[in-house]
Amino acid sequence: MNEEASTKTIRVLSLFEMLNNGEIIKKKEAADRFNVSEKTILRDLKEINIYYSNYKYNTLVNSVSYNRVEKGYFLKVRNT
Question: Maximum Cα–Cα distance for the chain, whole Å?
Answer without folding.
Answer: 42
